[in-house]
Amino acid sequence: MSLITRTSRGLALAMAVFMLIGCGRASQDDDAPIRPTVYNLGDPVNDPDIAAVVSSEYGADTLTTEFFLRQYNLILERLPQIGADPGQQEELRRNIVEEFVRRHVVFGVADQEGIQSDSLEVADQMDRLRAQFGSEDEFQDALAANEITEDSLRASIAEDLRQQAVLMHFASSVAAPSDLDIERFRREQAEEIQAQHILFLTQPGLSADERDDIRSRAEAVRDSARQGVDFAELAQRHSDDGSAARGGDLGYFRRGMMVPEFEDAAFALSDSGDVTRDLVETQYGYHIIRLTGRRTGEVMDTSLARQGLEMQRRQREVQNRVQTLTEGAELRVNPEVVQAEINHDV
Question: What is the pTM of this model?
Answer without folding.
Answer: 0.69
